[in-house]
């Protein structure tokens, strides 16, 4: 039976790392972005119990989820993309909590206004970056970029959303924070949040793969197979 031709838009999205690289991503990003940068700030004194437990519970859950993917990255090759997207959401949320801790703990802010506005800004960033990812896919932008062709450049939109997020957090924090050092730290966390929020786009990729498994198998026949059943590992 003749295989159906795969359109260029689909092919542009079916570009995967090998499972070993997936495992490496988990270890590196967990260690640096989540544990060292995020969790250490949550654990630091003084501690706000509500902020700490709000962050540490999802962190523990995502670490538990990571164990089987690290142990058997070949078997969980498809699940990795859902996992990595959820990790991006959790890491983004942890950074949001760290920023709130800096505002509330260091400067004894009592109003819920900065937390509410900060959460709205954080969720908006996740939505915008996922929208950019989906638009880039279905407009053919990814396909044209991979071919090296000139294309509609969505980078100004992405840059604007990222810069807007940092400025929004910075301006919001400036109303409650007087320390320049703390404002700089908040600015750094805001920049890191853009990266972790972009990781959340992997959730869409997971569902795209799930809907197009036949096409995935055409391009990568060994996708999702255990290591022992693969010829090229």
UniProtKB/TrEMBL annotation:
The chain crosses the membrane at residues 24-44, 50-72, 79-99, 111-132, 152-177, 183-208. Keywords: Membrane, Transmembrane, Transmembrane helix. The lineage of its organism: Bacteria, Bacillati, Bacillota, Bacilli, Bacillales. This is Uncharacterized protein. The keyword Transmembrane applies.
